[in-house]
Amino acid sequence: MIKKSRRFLTPLLSATSIFVEYLYTRCVYACPTLKGYFLNVELEYVGIIFMIFIGFLSIMRKDDLVLLFLSLGVGAEIFLLGYQVYHGVYCVYCLIFGGILMLQFLMHYKKEKWKLIVCLIVIGLSVFGFLFKGGPAPSYAQTGQEKLISTFGEGKIIVRLYTDYFCGPCKALEPEVEPIIKELVSSNTIQLTFIDTPFFKYSALYARYFLYAINANKRSLDYAFSVRNALIEASNSKLDTPEKLESHLQSKGIKLNKFNPNPIFEVFTRYIREDKINSTPTCVILKEEKKEMYVGGKEIVDALKGLQKK
After folding, report:
1. Which in 15, 23, 180, 273 has the greatest CB count within 10 A?
2. Measured on CA atoms in the order 99, 101, 107, 109, is the torsion positive or negative?
3. Residue 142 has pLDDT above 80, yes or no
């Protein structure tokens, strides 16, 4: 009975894990900041390939091979769990994936093979730890410090909005918060700082050009939103070089005033760490010495609406 259930449940759980990894790649609700690579392949794709392989072996009734690879996978998951605990940054998708893998492992565990299993777990832990590359919160280049040009408004309530041009939920959020933020800034209710996070491959490039653009027209919030909308269009078109990005922005009538943004990136990095940003979009609101954090589009919109004067 257990054997029959195992052959049905193992592929089903593998499919569930693949769906979880799909949600991770699509950044449903919010984009996690924990990123990693194994043999230069992003972990989410490693997980998808691994679970396809496990599902295939199970369908082919290769139970011994399934146990072998699941044991290696348990070693890898032990490393990743320890990595998250060490850095204090947790990825919900990763934890769900690890839980499913552990369940599959327990379904296939054979007591008489415990010595082999322990050896495989140690091998998986060691090899994965050696070949893994990643980090919980990439940082910008750091030198010096100067006043942020991505700050707007003179209100007493401090708002820091963390987004990424390649994050799906962030893109969806922009048109919703734009009129709310404009009203809050114009009424001197808030002092808003846009902080573009460097969590995707070309995020830092886009953040740099956002600063170049608003440096050409400082203190104009309308212009800042126009630039951000243009950059979101560019990310949708997968523009990945400075030349392509400049051409796109110029076609939108956006001027650039280049400068060294590293001092501003240093401040961004400090805030990202200070606010413990684990996903985007995230909004941090400091009001009367009290800090509150909101994650995901709905939470952020509701929080900002709550600041509007009645």
Report:
1. 180
2. negative
3. no
Domains of the chain, each with CATH number or no CATH: 2-135 (1.20.1440.130), 151-305 (3.40.30.10)
For 38, 147, 149, 219, 227, the CA distances from 261, given in Å and listed in that order, are 31, 11, 10, 17, 17
Summarised one tens digit per residue, pLDDT across range 297-310 is: 999 999 999 998 64
pLDDT digits (tens, 9 = 90+) for 195-219: 999 888 899 999 999 999 999 887 7
DSSP one-letter string for 47-68? HHHHHHHHHHHHHTT-HHHHHH
Strands 190-196 and 157-163, how do they pair? parallel
- Tell which residue, 212, 178, 210, has the closest CA to residue 192: 178
